[in-house]
């Protein structure tokens, strides 16, 4: 390697093989209870939970460690209503003819339609933006790399952190979603990538049976 400033890798725990397997399995059990939620309670959630989860997301790996993400957290009723209205305009077009029949058929087991009441019910809508340019220091205007991949990984961390805090999430992707820039006061150079709906699960909420069908290991992995 070329010379560069370093610090020691903080020691990871020395575990027995059995303990590693048990921990990996326990994590799988815990994360497997996470499902996309479309029935949220309007119960408030402390902002500090969201802050800690976003800080966890901010530790994700990214191209050249430029951390090309921004999380705009909508919590005001007025902004939530505006987002819902804009999203529903697009969803009406999507379900009203823009989407291919194949896509509509694929969504049938989820029971989704153009009405998105949870966009107003849930306490937080985290709008996630990718930055094509930036860098690590304030005011940097450097090229960023692997923005989509980096933001995707950070979003995974965010979802996992919120799940660990006992909160439900829904990844929502209005199409197109450029309206999010104006709504969230973000510069046009940023790419809106996802809305993460966050809150407590509503009493007697259900999930589609379809969502419980996960592929077995031999269909998602191979050993070479
Ligand atoms: N954005 C629409 C449609 C939709 C698309 C996919 I791919 C999904 O996994 C779920 C929904 C909606 O939110 O209804």
UniProtKB/TrEMBL annotation:
SUPFAM superfamilies: FMN-dependent nitroreductase-like
A Pfam family: Nitroreductase
Keyword Glycosyltransferase attributed: no
Domain Nitroreductase: 31-200
A GO MF term: oxidoreductase activity
The entry's keywords: Flavoprotein, FMN, Oxidoreductase
InterPro entries with a match to the protein in the record: Nitroreductase, Nitroreductase-like, Nitroreductase/BluB
The protein's name: Nitroreductase family protein
Organism: Flavisphingopyxis soli
Phylogenetic classification of the source organism: Bacteria, Pseudomonadati, Pseudomonadota, Alphaproteobacteria, Sphingomonadales
């Amino acid at each position: 390697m070329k010379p560069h400033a370093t610090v020691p890798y903080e020691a990871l725990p020395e575990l027995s093989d059995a303990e590693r397997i048990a921990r990996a399995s326990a994590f799988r059990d815990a994360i497997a209870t996470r499902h996309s939620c479309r029935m949220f309670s309007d119960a408030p959630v402390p902002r500090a939970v969201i802050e800690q989860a976003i800080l966890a997301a901010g530790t994700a790996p990214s191209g050249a460690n430029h951390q090309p993400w921004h999380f705009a957290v909508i919590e005001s009723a007025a902004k939530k209503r505006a987002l819902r209205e804009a999203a529903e305009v697009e969803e009406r077009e999507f379900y009203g003819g823009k989407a291919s029949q194949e896509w509509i058929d694929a969504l049938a087991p989820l029971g989704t339609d153009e009405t998105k009441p949870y966009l107003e019910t849930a306490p937080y809508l985290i709008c996630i933006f990718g930055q094509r340019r930036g860098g690590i220091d304030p005011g940097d205007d450097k090229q960023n790399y692997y923005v989509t991949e980096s933001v995707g990984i950070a979003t995974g961390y965010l979802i996992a952190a919120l799940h660990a805090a006992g909160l439900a999430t829904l990844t929502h992707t209005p199409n197109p979603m450029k309206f999010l820039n104006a709504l969230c006061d973000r510069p046009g150079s940023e790419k809106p990538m996802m809305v993460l709906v966050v809150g407590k699960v509503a009493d007697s909420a259900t999930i589609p049976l379809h969502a419980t069908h996960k592929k077995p290991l031999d269909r998602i992995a191979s050993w070479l």
